[in-house]
Amino acid sequence: MHEHIARSMYYFGVHLLFASMVASAAWALTSVLRASATTKYWIWVATAFNFVLPTGALVDKIGAPHFTWARPLGAIGAAVWDMTQGRTGAILGVIWMTGGFCMLGRLISRIRRERREAQAMVPLSDGGLTSNFLADGIPVTFGDRHLGPAVRGVLYPRILLPIGIDRLLNPREFHAVLIHELAHARRRDNLIRLLYEASLCALWFHPLMWLAGARIGLYRELSCDESVIRHAHGQELVSALAKLAVPKQASVLQATASSHLSYRLAHLAAPPQTTYRAASLLLASLFLAVVAAGIFQTIAHTACCFVIKH
Fold first, then answer.
1. Which residue has the higher pLDDT, 14 or 220?
2. Mean pLDDT highest for which of 46-55, 97-106, 271-280?
3. What's the mean pLDDT in 47-72?
4. Separation CA 150–CA 164 (nearest Å)
5. Res. 61 pLDDT band, cuts 50 70 90
6. Beta bridge mates, 138
7. Residue 290, pLDDT above cutoff 70
8. Res 15: pLDDT
9. Which residues contact residue 32 at a Cβ distance below 8 angstroms, ignoring those fewer than 6 apart?
10. Which of 78, 101, 155, 161 is surrounded by the fewest CB atoms within 10 Å?
11. pLDDT at 114 (0 to 100)
């Protein structure tokens, strides 16, 4: 029994080692190259899911007999063997399960809260809603029970806007905010966020998973701002954010991703970049090469029998 647990943990340890190297490379590449925020967003999404999708182990299962050159990592094998036996393994298991249940409870709490907020926007007899319309096929709802613009729904997203935002902003500013929210909705960002947070329930102990989440959140907003810039509404979005940041409207910042506001304003105020396409292609190519190398190295150290420490 212990041998089977140790073997599984060895595979998991090797996978996490090289997934961590891929994440470190993603951080370096996205920090150095001036590529588009959209490219960086998808790179960090792939980085996060690379932690929970053991591609190397799957390839190993399919073609292990052909990888006769594979060699185990003795350092990880010995550490895993010692860690998974006796009281140490039981304690670590309890700590991991406790953390996982705490993260799961946190996720369920957020989902229930957002569901209650969305249900509060359902038309009521008290006239809580003023009007609805479709924007590129995405339902848009105005209501007095939501504090700011947001996208709700996982598979079938809809945009929720507070009553009065169309009076606070001029038509071009309002259109800029709507373009930003539409970018979230069309890309199903809520679904990606849900899958990431579900993965975090299992890998809550890994700091690079938290880094990936922070970077996904940052580039998610910046990439949607790029959609606004492509429609020549960048300055209007800046002025809209400024109006939404007025103290009496501070609650609206829930929708404007205030935690990334300084990055967004700097991005929107920067001069147009003409090197995005070449830099984005280079960044994507380098990242794919790193991912392929990580998968190859995982196979190189798992497609072989586990060396048991005697």
1. 220
2. 97-106
3. 72
4. 15
5. low
6. 135
7. yes
8. 86
9. none
10. 155
11. 79
User: What residue has token string 């089977």?
Assistant: 4
Q: What is the length of the chain?
A: 310
Distance (Å, rounded) from C-alpha 140 to C-alpha 165? 13
- Residue 310 pLDDT greater than 50, yes or no: no
Bridge partner list, 218: none
DSSP the chain: -HHHHHHHHHHHHHHHHHHHHHHHHHHHHHHHS---HHHHHHHHHHHHHHHH--HHHHHHHHHGGG-TT----HHHHHHHHHHTSHHHHHHHHHHHHHHHHHHHHHHHHHHHHHHHHHHTTS--TT--EEEEEEETTEEEEEESS-SS-EEE-SSS-EEEEETTHHHHS-HHHHHHHHHHHHHHHHTTHHHHHHHHHHHHHHSTT-HHHHHHHHHHHHHHHHHHHHHHHHTT-HHHHHHHHHHHTSGGGGGGGGTTTGGGHHHHHHHHHSPPPS-HHHHHHHHHHHHHHHHHHHHHHHHHHHSS------
